[in-house]
Recover the amino acids of this structure.
């Protein structure tokens, strides 16, 4: 989620609120929060998210959270989300449906 929001190198105010709210809602520890908010290599981030997906439904949920966190997508965020969908084994139809639903 954070990675998709930060894919363009900038967290706008809306993205910052979404990330903060998600971190609070998830109840992450202070150490986890620090890890999540540090900039890491994109491939490492994609691998980390993909490995966290326990089921296909969980993969779709993780992807949806990333889409919501990214807000209005620019080119870099769109590319990141495309890579994330591939790592999560979501086909383009599934990914497109999730993106459309997230915008409603």
């Amino acid at each position: 989620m954070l990675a998709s929001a930060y894919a363009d190198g900038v967290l706008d105010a809306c993205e910052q609120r979404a990330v903060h709210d998600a971190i609070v809602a998830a109840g992450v520890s202070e150490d986890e929060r620090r890890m999540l908010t540090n900039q890491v290599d994109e491939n490492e981030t994609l691998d980390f998210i993909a490995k966290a997906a326990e089921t296909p439904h969980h993969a779709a949920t993780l992807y949806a959270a990333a889409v919501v966190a990214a807000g209005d997508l620019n080119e870099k965020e769109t590319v990141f989300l495309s890579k994330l969908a591939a790592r999560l084994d979501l086909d383009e139809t599934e990914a497109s449906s999730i993106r459309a639903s997230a915008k409603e």
In short: Helices lie at 2-5, 13-26, 30-37, 42-52, 56-70, 75-87, 92-102. Residues 2-102 form one domain.
